[in-house]
Write a structure and sequence with these properties.
437 residues; alpha/beta; nine-stranded mixed β-sheet; six-stranded parallel β-sheet; 15 strands
Length: 437
Amino acid sequence: MESLKRRDFIKSSSALAGATVLTASSVGQVFAAGSDVIKVALIGCGGRGTGATFDAFNSGQNIQLVAMADAFKDNLDATHKTLVEKFGDKINVPDSRKYVGFDGYKAAIKDADVVILTTPPGFRPDHFAAAVKAGKHVFMEKPVATDIPGIRKVLEAAKEAKAKKLNVVVGLQRRYQTNYREAIKRIQDGAIGDVVSGQVYWNSGGVWVRPRKPGQTEMEYQMRNWYYFNWLCGDHIVEQHVHNIDIANWIKGKYPVSIQGTGSRAHRDGKDYGEIYDNFAIEMTYDDGAVVYSQCRHFEGISNRVDETFQATKGRVYLSAGNQAVLWDAQGKEIYRHDPKGNPNAYQQEHKELFAAIANGEYKFDNAEYGAYSTLTGIIGRIACYTGKVIKWDEAMQSNIDIMPAQYSFDAQPKIVPNADGLYPVAVPGINVEKYI
C-alpha cells in the first residue's frame, strides 16, 4: 500500500478514462456472443440490485439470471416477480436457487459466471472476496467497503482478480459516462494545464426513512434502515458522495495525502437517522499541493447541487452527471463544450462494456482498485470530520478499527445500539477519537 505504488498505479490507469483496458487476453471461461449463455447471480435484491439486473439484460449479450440471494425473503420475492414480468424465461431462478439469509451469497456465487453485488456496502468486501476466490467476473456497486479493514480485503481480492484475469466493474458510473470521459481525456492531454484546485458537491435533501416496526430485532431494524448506520452504509460521504470524490481523484490522477474537515447533525438528528451526520465539508490535499474542497449534505428545503469544478494553470472545467462538460482557457474563452446528443446511459454503458468483454473472452476491467481507493478517500473524510483531526492517508491505511458486527444473524447485536430514549451515539469531534482511528 506504499504511497509510490498507489500513485504510480493511478497515473497509469487514469489515462484510460475509467475502463482500464488491459491487453486483451484469454479469460478462464470464454463465451461466444449470441450462442453461449452467461449465467448471472444477483446478490442483494433491493432497488439497486433490480436496476443493475435490468442493465445487465439490456447489455446486448445472451444472459440468464440463475440465482438470487438476499437477507430478506420479501426483497428477493419482490425483485424476482419484477424481473420475471420484464424478462420472462431469461429469469431461470427456481426456489432451489433462491437463497435467503446472511450466508446465501455463498451458494448463489457457485451457480454463476458473473456475480452482481448490490447489498448494502458493508457486506461488499466479504462478497467480493468470495466471488473472486470462486473465479467469477464481478459487477459491484459503490462504495466497496465501510471501514479500512474492509478496504484492505477488497484490495487483496483485487490482486487475485487480476491474477485470474477476472473482469471487475465498479458502479462509479461517471467513469463510463461520455461527457466525463471526453472532458477528462482533454484535461489529461494538457488542455487546461495542471489542476491546482477544485470543488466537488453532492448537496441534496437526503434519502428514505423506514420507521421501526413492532417485533423487529435491532439487527433487522438496522438492516432495513441500512443508510443510517456506518457498518452498513459508511455515512453519506462514503455511500453517495464517493461519486464526486472519485472524479477529483480521476482528474488528479492520484489520491490525497491528507484530509481534514468538519461535519455535524444539524437537521436530521432524531432517532430515525441512526448515527450518521447530515453534512460534511472536507479538504483533500494532494502531494503536489493541490487542494480539492468537497461538500455534501442532506438538508431538506434548500438549494441542491451535484457537480464538480476544477481550476488549473491554463484554464478551468465544469462537469455534471447531467451530461455537461465545459472547458475554458485562462482568459475565459470556451475551448470545449460537450454535446450530450446521443450519449448512452452511463448505468447501461458500464454493463454493456463489462458483458461484451466477458462474451468475447477478453480481460479489460480492473475497477476494484480505484473503487477501493476512492471509497477509502470518503472513509478518511468521515474519520477526519468525526475526530476533528487531520488524517494522513498512509497512517489511515494502518487502521484496524473494525465496525462490522461480530456475528451475522437477526438475533445478534450490532456494535452500535440505541440508548433508553431510542437515540444512537453520534460522533463528537475531539471526543472518543480512538473509536474512529
